[in-house]
């Protein structure tokens, strides 16, 4: 019987993503803080539809807004590891990456009563050490890579990559990779950002973005018997009025296509069960 899964995931970064880029003046910080307002709106919407989702929260955000994070947990949503700061692991020295990773695990443990099952790297840029850290700390899945669009797979470590040589594949691990995509992320579509180094135009028409998001799910239904898509949202982005409306419309449209809404933890469990049944 066909089964098609939609994962609604939320990167609750608030101000931490701006601070990691050196944007620490009052205006960008307040822009990130709007995420707390957005998170409340999102939780109200998800609660009204009976949908559980996955939230990835940096440790600094958990400690800054404990009540907002406690509400996420109390509402039955998954809390995943999203670093201590929002600095991408690929930009951290080894000892700093390890220290921040462990610190965030303990922060999540204090919030939820247990360690995280899943990890998502800030800015989706892991180092060649990250997979080892994820496994060492007992996580069962990662959601930072893009090797497929609608099917999980087991992540590799130790690839050898050079621009002028064929790729040498590393070891396949027991870590389930639940792939993501920038096209299914609200941030590049909607957020206007300008610094001395770059310009991100953002501010796309919401209706066009919604059409893309729906049609990706429609295509998955056409080509797979079992598949999943991960949508990634940021409360300070999707929490704005017209974007909350398209989130509501997306949920309705997916429901009309018989989508099964699941957390990423539930997806990795189902994928493992399917993989065991196939290999057995």
TrEMBL record:
Q: Entry's Pfam families?
A: Polysacc_deac_1 (PF01522)
Domain of life per record: Bacteria
Concerning PROSITE patterns, the annotation shows: NODB (PS51677)
Q: Which residues form the NodB homology domain?
A: 26-262
What InterPro entries would the database entry show? Answer: Glyco_hydro/deAcase_b/a-brl (IPR011330), NODB_dom (IPR002509), PgdA-like (IPR037950)
Job of this protein: Is involved in generating a small heat-stable compound (Nod), an acylated oligomer of N-acetylglucosamine, that stimulates mitosis in various plant protoplasts.
Family as reported in the entry's similarity comment = Belongs to the polysaccharide deacetylase family.
Please identify the protein, giving its name as recorded: Chitooligosaccharide deacetylase
